[in-house]
Structure formats: C-alpha cells, structure tokens
Amino acid sequence: MTSGDMQRTNLLGLPRPQLTAFVAQLGSRPFRARQLMNWMYKRGTGSFADMTDLAKDFRTRLAAAAEVRAPEIVAVQNSADGTTKWLLRADASQAFEMVFIPEADRGTLCISSQVGCALDCSFCATAQQGFNRNLSTAEIVGQVWLACRELERAEATPRILAAHRGADGADPGGADERHVTNVVLMGMGEPLANFRNVVPALAILLDDFGFDLSRRRVTLSTSGLVPQIYKLAEETNVALAVSLHAPDDALRNELVPINRKHPIAELLQACWHYLDSRCGRSVTFEYVMLDGVNDSAAQARALARLLKGHPAKVNLIPFNPFPGTHYRRSPAPVIQRFRDELLQRGVLATIRRTRGDDIDAACGQLAGRVIDRTTVRLGSKTFGVAVQPQS
Ligand code: SAH
Q1: Which of 26, 198, 352, 381 has the highest local Cβ count within 10 Å?
Q2: Is 363 a catalytic residue?
Q3: Parallel, antiparallel, or unpaired: how do β-strands 283-289 and 312-318 relate?
Q4: Which are the contacts of 131, defined by CB distance < 8 A and separation ≥ 6?
C-alpha cells in the first residue's frame, strides 16, 4: 500500500447521505451516489473502471480520491458442517474474524465490530485478548461486502465450492442457503461500545441502495450498555439481542461485569423501551449454558419470572470451551430441562445449534486461537497477527 492509498476515502464507510455529499464535492450530481451504490452493493464491483455508466472523467476523479476496499483475507477455514470462517486483517498486527453459517432457510453472516473487547465477560474467548481497537464503518460494512463476493465466487467456481464440503467430501450443506440473508453483530467486540462506527454501518446494511436487508434480518447483540441502547432507539430499528446469561445481579456481576454499572432491572427497562419506540416484536436474550453455574431449574424459574409477559425470546447457547477457561458446557439434558422450565412458564426458548466448532468458529470462540497463532503464513507472505496481550 502506498501513502497515496491512505489518503483515499473508502466508500464502504459512507452511508448514502455522506456518499451523496462526497460525490457533490467531486463536482457530480446526487444521483451518481445511487449509481455508485448500485455498482458496489448490487453488483459487488469495487473497481471504478468497471462502472461503465459513469462518465469517464468522473471515474478518473473517483479513482484519485476514493477506493472500495474490503478487509484483507489472511486465512479461510471451512468446517465439515458448511460453516466458513475468515481471518481478516485490520492492520499490520491486528486480526479479526467473520463467520458464515449456511442453513436451509437462511445464510447468516456473523461480523465483528471491534478487534478484541473491553467488556471482560468471564466466559468469552475474545475478552481474554483485551481491547485493541474499534473497527471503522468501512471495515464493518467491508466484511459483508467481502463475504457476499467470496460466496458468489465460490458458487461460480466448482473447485472452490468443493472446498466448502466436509473433509470426507460429503456435501452437508447441499441444499443450504449460500448467500448472506441475515447479518448478526455477534463476532468480536461490543457493538455499542463502537456506536459511532456501527450505526452508519447498520444504515448501509438496511438501505435499499445498500445491502437492502430487512431490519428483522440484522441483529445487534450487546452485553448491556444501557445508555447506548436508549441512543440506539433514536438511530435505528434493527433486531436487538442481549447477552443476559444470569437471572440475578449477583451472578451476572460475575459473568458480565458491565452489570455492576447497569444492573438487570435497568437493562430490561432499556430493552422494553427499545421495542416500544421502534415497534419491535421482541428482544432475544442470549443465555450461555455453563455447567453448575447458571443452569439449574431454580435459575430457569427465576429467568422466567423476569421475562414472563414481556416480548422476549430466550436463546440458550451451549458454552463453547476454549483453552484456559475453567467453565464447562452444561450437559444436553440439563439444557433441555432449562428450556422446558421456560416453555412451561410461557417464555419462548430455543437451544442454539453449535456450528463450526471444529474450526473454532462457534459462538464466543472468535480469535481465541489467533492469539496463540502468532504468525499466519499465506503463500510466501507472512503476516504477524499477534494481538497485544491484555494490559
Ligand atoms: N459483545 C456482544 C457480542 C458478543 S458474541 C454481546 O456481548 O452480546 C455473541 C454471544 O456469544 C454473546 O451472547 C456472548 O455472550 C456469547 N458468548 C461469548 N463467549 C461464549 C462462549 N465461549 N460460548 C458460548 N457463547 C459465548
């Protein structure tokens, strides 16, 4: 990369109003912004030279002042169950991850909002690496742009498609959706701690001229930054997921330390406010199942008391262990009993299917191994992806 590149504006970071202003600065008319977005998001083109319905001199000015640059791929891993994980490069020493999960009726892309995380949840692999930096809007949107392009390419290239099959050559995802139909901000980082860059990214995901995703197909997951949930209600109406993980403050203080600042009662108020002001249907409460910690029948009943009568769904996530953790996953029958306790009390509950665990792509595992793997070789190039230790 030359220093000239550094000066260019990455158009993946500009929602429509900002792109329109940018185009105007280059002396062009507002509708050119929509044409540009059409090329970028509908056709997946990042090269101005290919945008043939734009005047040649405008394309030249664009090429001098702007770029469409997605994060670089450092490594790709394909799971036997069809899940794909990409290790992406933020800059020389920092990497973050993105995961695509194909299912029969949807293709879910799980994206990161930060490199590392400052929230320090005790059961989360990302927390162990500490906080490195916020991703920019262009890096957040760039993940979706890149995944769409890579999936498209895989579809068009039988050889690459084969790589998506299991190691045994089976094609478990034969009938699965291999396009991005849903985006979840459940990768690395706390999206609401990067509010400034996440909100414009959401706008591009929802914009008809952007990815044109319905608001119900974009989910922001938060550990519970209460003031930012109120602010979010003023800015967007995407689906909200909240990492609850405990039915009482004493336990939640331990698992999700931000609870000491914003306890459960305050958090729930913020959730109901979000739904009311955005005409949302329900909030999804994530609940990681930790053996002997938060998985008793009494705790299920306490959780049901908190949520009963509210527009809430509970998603039980079997804990995904990672090196160095002292937690264990609750046994399957315990998870089922917990779900049944909730269902019997009229609280909607589902158990999340664990995907991609053979490639450490499962929930909360992102980057867990990246820290150990200080160097990733890709062809002849070597990228250092050591992530700074937690201070
Ligand atoms: N910072 C956001 C996004 C985190 S990742 C948030 O806290 O919501 C998405 C979900 O995975 C969260 O509910 C998170 O608590 C959960 N999670 C983290 N580590 C996990 C692990 N090791 N096993 C299972 N789920 C985990």
Answers
A1: 198
A2: yes
A3: parallel
A4: 114, 115, 116, 117, 118
Q: Backbone phi, then psi, for 312, in 5-degree steps? A: -130, 145
CA atoms within 13 A on the CB side of 340: 7
Token readout for 86 is: 């990409």
**pTM, rounded to two decimals:** 0.89
List 121, 124, 148, 363, catalytic entry = 363
Protein residue closest via CA to atom 18 of ligand 1: 364
Q: Cβ–Cβ contacts within 10 Å for residue 26, how many?
A: 13
Q: Indicate whether residue 225 lines ligand 1 (CB < 6 A).
A: no
| Structure tokens belonging to residue 222 | 């938060």
Nearest to 184 by CA among 108, 274, 271: 108
Phi and psi at residue 214, in whole multiples of 5°?
Answer: -70, 150
Is the C-beta atom of 364 inside 6 A of ligand 1? yes
Count of C-beta atoms within a 10 Å radius of residue 162: 12
> Which mutation among 123, 225, 360 tests ligand 1's pocket best, with the greatest number of atoms within 8 A of CB?
123
Among protein residues, the one with the nearest Cα to ligand 1's atom 16 is 364
Closest-lying ligand 1 atom to the alpha carbon of residue 321: 22
List Cα–Cα distances, 245 to 232, 288, 314, in angstroms. Answer: 22, 6, 10
Quote the mean pLDDT of the chain.
Answer: 87
Q: Two tokens at 70?
A: 């997605």
C-beta 223 within 6 A of ligand 1: yes
Atom of ligand 1 nearest to the CA of 327: 22
Distance CA 233, CA 277 (A): 7
In angstroms, how far is the first alpha carbon of the chain from the final one? 30
pLDDT tens-place string over residues 34-72? 999 999 999 999 999 999 999 999 999 999 999 999 999
Q: Among 288, 295, 357, which is best to mutate for testing ligand 1, by the most ligand atoms less than 8 A from CB?
A: 288
Amino acid residing at 307:
L
The average pLDDT across 367-387 equals 35
How far apart (Å, rounded) are the C-alpha atoms in residues 341 and 247? 13
DSSP state of 50: G
